[in-house]
């Protein structure tokens, strides 16, 4: 679809798209539950043997608290999701008042439910929205502006199905500059900007791809919107345990406050191929294409990460 067009993808079946998305989402959550159990068992047998296993305990504590105190909102339960929360709309409005948001022309926003209002505000403030398909499973990033859809379809355009229907699919060669990145989080540390997502690593992969494209650099600000209960006590995350692919946040926005972390944690310079397992690579077509391109251009094979056991989703990138 040409940029600025209001014509949706031909014969787009939103019902079928959503049914497939929900099925794959549940499979992914089951995979994360399995991974949690596997990591917990391995850690019990040999403490420190699983890099990043400590993150699950922190995530679960936050997810449990949000459910027990009815802070969570649809979709529920919030376990193994980027958790939606009460007053997510207020946090989004607070974000939209930041000068970094006001001055940005193109904003990348994650596709999760708590950031739906952020996507809405990007479009209604006449900015360009860049958003990935969930888990990069159906392709790559899509670009939308307020001219991409009929005005009455704004709410739909802010959903994953709407992005697939109205968005302009981008390629690795699309020239684009992203001024601000918005990510979802399970929790964040205000002292360091250390962030934990839901445990799949797709925000980090998306960040790495954008670095490769030259769309962002290490100075591009990363912002998250969360509930106040998702803001950990300062220093709760031992930054020495953070992994090299983890993306810290510069600004935390809650329904009640804005926290500038002044993080000095490094942001990954691109795709860390030596950390990417063959199984993970096999799930994501755009990464396969990128790897083939780099190897063809350089004439040198890229390294691969260690094998890992993934849930039965390896074919999803080819669906």
How many beta-strand elements? 10
Query: Could you list the spans in which at least 5 consecutive residues all have pLDDT below 50?
Result: 1-5, 312-319
Q: Which geometry do the CA atoms define?
A: globular
Write down the secondary-structure element order.
HHHHEHEEHHEEEEHEEEHH
Strand content: 5-15%
Counted by DSSP, the helix tally is: 10
Mean residue pLDDT? 88
Task: Report Rg.
Answer: 19 Å
End-to-end Cα distance: 21 Å
> Which strand order does the major sheet show?
4-3-2-1-5-8-9-10
Major sheet: size, sense and barrel closure?
8 strands, mixed
Percentage of helical residues?
A: 25-40%
Which structural class do the helices and strands define? alpha/beta
Describe this structure in words.
35% of the residues lie in helices and 11% in strands. It is α/β, with parallel strands linked by helices and 319 residues long. The strands form 2 sheets. Strands 4-3-2-1-5-8-9-10 form an 8-stranded mixed β-sheet, covered by helices on one side. The protein is globular. The two termini are 21 Å apart. 41% of the residues are buried. The N terminus and C terminus are likely disordered.
Essential attributes:
disordered N terminus, 11% strand, 10 helices, 319 residues, alpha/beta, eight-stranded mixed beta sheet, two-stranded antiparallel sheet, disordered C terminus, single chain
Short description:
This protein has helices at 14-45, 54-68, 88-96, 99-103, 116-124, 154-157, 160-166, 202-213, 278-283, 285-298; strands at residues 106-109, 128-132, 141-144, 168-169, 180-183, 187-188, 195-196, 221-225, 251-253, 258-260. With 319 residues, it is an alpha/beta fold.
